[in-house]
Amino acid sequence: QSVLTQPPSVSGAPGQSVTISCTGSSSNIGAGYDVHWYQQLPGTAPKLLIHTNTNRPSGVPDRFSGSKSGTSASLAITGLQAEDEADYYCQSYDNSLSGSVFGGGTKLTVL
Amino acid sequence: QVQLQESGPGLVKPSETLSLTCTVSGGSISGYYWSWIRQAPGKGLEWIGYIYYSGSRGSSNYNPSLKSRVTISVDTSKNQFSLKLSSVTAADTAVYYCAKQLVLVRNFELWGQGTLVTVSS
After folding, report:
1. C-alpha pair distances (Å), A41 with each of A84, A109, B67, B98
2. pLDDT tens, A1-59?
3. Is residue A101 within 8 Å of residue A71, measured between CB atoms?
4. Which of A72, A73, A88, A91 is nearest to B46 (CA)?
5. Who among A44, A48, A102 is closest to B46 (CB)?
């Protein structure tokens, strides 16, 4: 049971848009801590996709965007491409654990 | 360019202690937060704990679910930090990643490639 809750899977056709939610609580996202998103391709380490809620590292396409409100955050992917098929994880800080917490991960399937 | 590399046995027997080392190359280990994160086969990411070292001061904290079995330490002379997980069971089989944070509440800005540790007799 992950501290942050994500849907196990989402899917969309090429060119379409999808959104992945990440729901936390008053000890993490709701406490004002930032949310970060990672993309993980099979057999590889997670790659930072969005940091500090809305910021894309250099090299990440602007098809990826993040938002945060209250105790939740979202990752939006527009113009889906086959290469976007991967697992996506949200991460934040939890003050009751005094450490990092992750969502359970969402598998994106591009139909 | 800073790089992280995990090393250690790929097979550990049940009830024994899992020991892994992360070597930090291209930069100093001082002044940053260094974590261990694991991922069981087909499962999500689980933060294990972190260590912070700066000058003569250091601190660490562990995931409460693993706290009684985990120790993370740092060897500044070798620019390495290590993980020890005691009394392992098959449930501890996972890919173990080491990772770096600039600030504890922020993202993991650098990851090792990960190393698979299997617990089996």
Report:
1. 9, 12, 30, 17
2. 899 999 999 999 999 999 999 999 999 999 999 999 999 999 999 999 999 999 999 99
3. no
4. A91
5. A102
Instruction: Identify all chain B residues contacting A34, using CB atoms and an 8 Å cutoff.
Output: 105-107
In SS3 terms, A44-68 reads as CCCEEEEECCCECCCCCCCCEEEEE
| Average pLDDT of span B61-79 | 95
Question: Which of A33, A93, A99 comes nearest B63 by C-beta?
Answer: A99
Among the listed residues B116, B110, B84, B86, the one whose alpha carbon sits nearest the alpha carbon of residue B98: B110
Rounded to a whole number of angstroms, the distance from the CA of B44 to the nearest CA of chain A is 5
pLDDT tens figures, B45-59: 999 999 998 887 889
For the record, the structure tokens of A16 come out as: 């379409």
User: pLDDT digit string (tens) for A57-101?
Assistant: 999 999 999 999 999 999 999 999 999 999 999 999 999 999 999
What would the pLDDT profile of B29-40 be if each residue is shown by its tens digit? Answer: 999 999 999 999
